[in-house]
């Protein structure tokens, strides 16, 4: 039986997210969007003590729902991934930039959740971890990572450059993707935890951006950066057969199966926020939605709003399915890419269309709609572009490898 309603535990988290969005984020969203570069956001410190663990299934917020993970019970459960999706949608409707600036919420935490050992999860679980994948010459093709990690006694030595690291400056750790042997391709790519202040790691700049301005985006260099041998997440072994190589890289890529639905949820939240404000603006002009009315009897603006609501709901259901699959240990790579592609595209379209529909009030800084439109664009790009998501889905459906379908 399929139940499309949230259980009470998730409704509680939904309300918490709504209160955070409206009571904390919205009142200060414009202020910090204009400041852009700041060392901290004091208003977010209390939230940081409540929300930590990042985007993965080990998010401590799951404990607040009273739900157990499938490892603890044979029953189907909504655990950390579903909880994260529900709260992210609501908080992103307040300000997705501020949500990403909350101390303790880092995309690197999802990598720790996906591939770390039990001991490592205990050791690194309380860190605010950024994710360092993208390089100046390596974007969506994660298999092309050039940053190297060389074992020297009981230490790894990292060398390379990473760009576009969300929370790379403010976070207290970075999960770095690096290769142990460039000649061995994907199988040699591992992720390493580098704590802030480690000699050899340097934040060389923070980017000026169109959107998500309050969330710092850093460029980081690693020059003979030494970290303990135990800071490689999971196994440091390089597979020696083609099947084992695919499985090894699949473990690294599992990070994205956790984070892509989360980014989709951000797109949903931004679009929801823009739609809500647009409807408030239009209601003052006498345009109010009536869902009992036939679409063909509606005005052009009303019909457009109905279509956007329908598109948003389709993306929401796809995102919930991907999160549910992750919580119940079902392979969700295809669904994660599907929901990310759909929500990224829908979120960007809806926010821009709301700008147009609301005219001067949409384009000016009187309302937050124009900010939401700026924020939405990156949600269609990071964690894998629209084109990469479609390519992943096509490969999975057709049963083709990356070398067979490029």
Describe the structure.
The protein has 406 residues and is α+β, with helices and mostly antiparallel strands. It has 3 domains: 8-115, Acyl-CoA dehydrogenase/oxidase, N-terminal domain (Butyryl-Coa Dehydrogenase, subunit A, domain 1), CATH 1.10.540.10; 118-239, Beta Barrel (Butyryl-CoA Dehydrogenase, subunit A, domain 2); 243-398, Butyryl-CoA Dehydrogenase, subunit A, domain 3 (Up-down Bundle). It is built from 11 helices and 7 strands. The strands form 2 sheets. Strands 2-3-7-6 form a 4-stranded antiparallel sheet, with no helix packed on it. A 3-stranded mixed sheet has the order 1-4-5, covered by helices on one side. The longest helix is centred in the middle third of the chain and has 42 residues, at 242-283. It is globular and about 70 Å long.
Chart the SSEs and their pairings:
Layout: H1 8-35, H2 45-50, H3 80-100, H4 108-115, H5 118-124, E1 129-132, E2 148-152, E3 155-166, E4 173-179, E5 189-195, E6 201-206, E7 217-228, H6 242-283, H7 300-327, H8 333-357, H9 360-363, H10 369-379, H11 386-398
Parallel strand pairs: 1-4
Antiparallel strand pairs: 2-3, 3-7, 4-5, 6-7
Helix pairs in contact: 1-3, 3-6, 3-7, 4-6, 6-7, 6-8, 6-10, 7-8, 8-10, 8-11
Q: CATH top level of the largest domain? A: Mainly Alpha
Structural class: alpha+beta
Shape annotation: globular
| Main beta sheet strand tally, sense and closure | 4 strands, antiparallel
CATH superfamily of the largest domain: Butyryl-CoA Dehydrogenase, subunit A, domain 3
Question: How far do the termini sit from each other?
Answer: 39 Å
Strand percentage lies at 5-15%
The CATH architecture of the largest domain can be named as Up-down Bundle
Proportion of helical residues: 40-55%
Spans of at least 5 consecutive residues with low confidence? 53-70
What is the count of β-strands?
A: 7
Q: Round the Cα radius of gyration to an integer and report it.
A: 21 Å
Estimate the mean pLDDT confidence: 87
């Amino acid at each position: 039986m399929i139940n499309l309603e949230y259980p009470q535990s998730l409704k509680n988290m939904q309300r918490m997210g709504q209160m955070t969005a409206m009571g904390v984020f919205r009142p200060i969203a414009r202020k910090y969007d204009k400041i852009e570069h700041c060392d901290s956001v004091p208003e977010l410190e209390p939230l940081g003590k409540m929300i930590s663990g990042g985007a993965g299934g080990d998010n401590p917020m799951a404990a607040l729902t009273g739900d157990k993970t499938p490892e603890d019970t044979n029953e189907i459960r909504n655990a950390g991934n579903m909880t994260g999706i529900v709260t992210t949608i609501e908080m992103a409707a307040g300000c997705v930039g501020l949500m990403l600036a909350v101390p303790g919420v880092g995309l690197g935490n999802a990598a720790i959740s996906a591939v770390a050992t039990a001991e490592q999860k205990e050791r690194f679980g309380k860190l605010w971890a950024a994710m360092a994948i993208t390089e100046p010459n390596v974007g969506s093709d994660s298999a092309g990572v050039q940053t190297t990690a060389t074992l020297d006694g009981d230490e790894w030595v990292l060398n390379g450059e990473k760009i576009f690291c969300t929370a790379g400056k403010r976070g207290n750790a970075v999960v770095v993707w690096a290769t142990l042997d460039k000649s061995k391709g994907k199988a040699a790519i591992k992720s390493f935890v580098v704590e802030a202040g480690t000699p050899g790691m340097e934040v060389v700049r923070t980017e000026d951006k169109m959107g998500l301005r309050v969330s710092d985006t850093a460029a980081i260099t690693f020059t003979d950066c030494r970290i303990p041998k135990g800071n490689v997440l999971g196994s440091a072994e390089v597979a020696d057969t083609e099947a084992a190589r695919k499985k090894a890289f699949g473990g690294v890529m599992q990070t994205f199966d956790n984070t892509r639905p989360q980014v989709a949820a951000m797109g949903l939240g931004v679009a929801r926020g823009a739609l809500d404000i647009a409807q408030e603006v239009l209601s003052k002009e006498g345009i109010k939605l009536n869902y009992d009315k036939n679409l063909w009897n509606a005005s052009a603006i009303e019909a457009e709003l109905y279509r956007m609501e329908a598109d948003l709901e389709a993306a929401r259901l796809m995102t919930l399915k991907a999160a549910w699959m992750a919580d119940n240990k079902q392979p969700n790579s295809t669904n994660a890419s599907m929901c990310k592609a759909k929500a990224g595209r829908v979120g960007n379209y809806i926010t821009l269309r709301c700008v147009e529909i609301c005219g001067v009030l949409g384009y000016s800084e009187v309302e937050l709609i124009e900010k939401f439109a700026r924020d939405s664009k990156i949600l269609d790009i990071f964690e894998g572009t629209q084109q990469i998501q479609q390519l992943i889905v096509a490969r999975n459906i057709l049963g083709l490898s990356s070398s067979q379908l490029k």
